[in-house]
Amino acid sequence: MGLARFWAIMGGIVLTALILMVCLSVAGRALNGFLHGGFMTSVAPGLAKWLLDLGVGPVNGDFELVEAGVAFAIFAFLPLCQLTGGHAAVDIFANQFPRWLDRTLRVLTEVLFAAVLILISERLYDGMLSKMRFGETTFLIQFPIWWAYAASFAGSVVTALVAVYVAAVRVVEFVTGREMLPAGEGAEH
Predict the structure, then answer these.
(1) What does the pLDDT look like over 105-118, one tens digit per residue?
(2) Does the pTM of the predicted model rise above 0.85?
(3) How buried is residue 121: exposed, middle or buried, by Cβ count under 10 Å (0-12/13-18/19+)?
């Protein structure tokens, strides 16, 4: 739980930084347009030029940073979501199932989810190595793309470890008949 919470906090910090950056970029873009507009160029051309020379405008490469940061944040939030059973659940028919079938489906779902997360981690690792090997960079700010892959890979490994743990606990619960982890209610829809 400590590891999952740590990663969720890291994801929250990154997401908060991205939100602040996007707000700054939008405000800079609007201010830049205003400074280039007819009103400022006629009323205070010196001030407008001075502010524009300072670099008032959007954050360069903001969408590249958002793309990389959100990918990391998603993988950072997944371990806590997995451990607490916070995934979205659609229980139209499942509420009518007998308890044994519900428990069986829970075990199968957790084992399958762990396998898929291991596969995702493996593919992210392979993609990261490929991006490193070819030296791919982003278009505007030219940061190496493998950095985003590495951050997402680290989060996916933690998520896969947590998923394997949860799957193992669910198997033990199924065999022993006792509940060790909360079943989780998922996100209600």
Answers:
(1) 889 999 999 999 99
(2) no
(3) buried
